[in-house]
Structure formats: C-alpha cells, structure tokens
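Hey all, quick one. A colleague (J.T.) asked me to put the aspartic acid job into the tracker so the inputs and the structure tokens live in one place instead of scattered across chat threads. No bug as far as I know, just bookkeeping. Sequence used:
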Amino acid sequence: MNTPPAPAVSQLHPDGRLRHLLTLDGLPAATLGALLDAAQAYGAGAQSGSALRARLAGRTVCTLFFEPSTRTRSSFQLAATRLGADTLAFDVSASSTSKGETALDTMRTLEAMGVDCFVIRHADNGAVAALAAGARPATAFINAGDGRSAHPTQGLLDMLTIRGHKGADFSKLRVAIVGDIRHSRVARSDIHALRALGAREIRLCAPPTLLPEPDDRAGCIVAPTLQDALAGVDVVMTLRLQRERMQEGLVPSLAAYLAEYGLDGDKLRLAAPDAIVMHPGPLNRGVEITDEVADGPQSVILEQVGNGVALRMAVLEAVLAR
Ligand code: ASP
C-alpha cells in the first residue's frame, strides 16, 4: 500500500502555527527548523524548574497507544511532565477496546474528560489523521506512528541528532538509509525531513522486496549493494526488520540478511571516518546491526533516545501554545 494522501485535516493554523503533527510530508523547512531550534534549547537545559513546569500547566496530554512502544510513549510522558502538563497514560490493553469499543469512541470519551492533546500510535495508515478529523477543533493530535505511513517525531529527533554532530546545514550531507524501508514509518518521515532540509544525497539500500514504492523514494538514490550505499556517507540510518508487518517471508533467512544488509564493523569502514550510525530502536541485534557497531564509538543510538525527550517537549509546546 502506498503512503496515504495528505490528511483531510490541516496540520497548520491559518497563521502558519502548528495545530497537529501528523506527518512531516509537506511541512515547510522553516517549521521543521523552528521545532529543531526549540528542541535544541530544551536539550541544552535553557530553562528549568518552575518556569519550565509553567509552560503547559493546566493542559492535559493523553498517550493512546494501540501498538507497543518503549521509547516514544515514555519520552512523551516525560516531556509532558517536564512542561507541567497533567498526563494520562491510557492503557488500551486493559480498556473497553477489548469489549469492541472503537478507537473513535475511546478518543471522544477521553476528550470529554478534558484531554487537550492526544499522542496516538495505531497500526493503520492514516488512523491518527482520521481521529483528528473526528475530534473537537481545539484538540491537538500528535502522530506517534501510524502503520507504515509516518512517525514524525522520530523523523525530527533524528534530524536533531544529525544536527548535533554535523551542524544545521544539511547541504553537504550524504545519508544512507538501510534495511526494511518498505515497512518503516521512520524511514518515510526521515526521507521527508531530509528532503525538506536539503540533504545532498539520500541513498536507500534494501532487498528488492523491502524497498519502498516509487512515490516514497522520489529524490533518493537506490544503491544496488550495501557497499555502494555506504561509500563515503556521513550518516548511516539502520532500520529494524519489521516482521510483524510482513505477511509472507520477504527475506530468505536472517543469516543471509545479516551477511548482505546487516551493518558490521567491516562494512562501516566504507563510510566517512566520522560517520554516525543511527537506529530508531528496538534493535534486532545480529540481524540488521552487530553488537560491535550498535555499541561502538560511531553509534548515536542512545543519543537519539535522549534527544527524543527534548524534541517532544518542543512539539507538545508548539501544538498546545495558546
Ligand atoms: N520504534 C519505531 C516505530 O515504532 C521503529 C520500529 O519499531 O522499528 O516505528
């Protein structure tokens, strides 16, 4: 399935401020830049204590996750708490969803309790935009990952991490995105952000069965081998093999996948000597990445996680600004 068309609800207020964050597709570079600047300031600890907690005091943020999460859900909760919001971590598995309540009815029920902002993850492409379309106009929605379509805050925290190492000018950057791109909402959001921020080259590398549809790879170079993809790049983004989204066996064996597409120390030596290695997590160690690389000096995987909190503070503040 292709990435769904742009959501019917607009992500921007008429004056250009962010109303929802559903996808990075089509967001102006200036909007991305402003979010990254704000996140950078939060990350640097520009504000602390009561001033920070006053920013979202009296607002209520609900995390509503219909798919599992470790990093995204926890970091949104921390981000909202640090800004002084009331938080509701709704437990879908222990809720009336198991009695057949629809996602729309669940959202409207929580909205009636005074939720100002929903952070939602769902297995279906376009599900978060559909929920936003069914909500009150003042309620904000942040997409925490919908199907294979988009994961905008991961895309932004990845850009924040790249900025931290390579600077804000992306025009000389060569980036390789490697692995299960077809099923990856992270890759789609990264590609949208890298294109908007003017990256020099975006190289994609995957087995033919795991390459994205042509629309999703516009402006990218498809590298025939991992060695071609890695030659001289500044950033290597590795991706999890998403077996839960594969109906049929799309890779012959995990060992063959590691040999051809897994990132190990030898292959990484083809990249620029100061290249950084990223992965959105969770890792399949020994499948798409070896321990040596995941825990090695070029890995910024835990930095990505840390940046996620600051970035999500910036996004929450932007959509909840009065
Ligand atoms: N955590 C990311 C996501 O939810 C990446 C992954 O699951 O592989 O999309």
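Adding what we noticed when we looked at it: The chain has a mean pLDDT of 94. The first strand starts at residue 60 and ends at 65.
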